[in-house]
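I am hoping you can look over what I have pasted underneath with an eye to the fold:
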Amino acid sequence: MKQELTYDDSSINKHEIHIRIRNISYRNVILMLSLILIIVIGYIGHEELDAAQSDNMNVNPIIMHIHPQLSLLVNGTSFSVPAQIGIDPSLWKDHSLDEFGMQSMLEMDMSDMSPLYTHDNSGIVHVESTINRNYTLGEFLNIWGLNVDGKTIKMTVNGKPVADLRDHILRDGEQIKLEVQ
């Protein structure tokens, strides 16, 4: 037995039913388009986040961070250690340790840096490396491009004489003084 859909003529007419059906369909279309738009935006945002996270995963974290202090006397005159050694290309001559330094982070407007560098002329040598290893004063001088071959140099570390300038391992907080003749 078939049942027919009927309506009460007294409360609603065919035109109103048609308008309500059309309005329901219009609302459903708007709702569906809104949901699709939200899903697409969410997907794009998720892809961007994944890409940013994978980019950050490709950058090795800094696991070594120490700060020895270097002061220079040349023929009895105090000289400042230049700012930007290992950052500025004109003060970054040796690139043999680059793989262990900080990689560029464009979103922070930072370029690559050597694992041994200076920010300013205070003499603080920043040792920031993606691996834990011994870095030497000789390696820092090579990065700087400072040629001390053939010069007479007296070196003290924390006030005590040290004979081996090139192979001296840099340590946090130590005071290194070079007197160049």
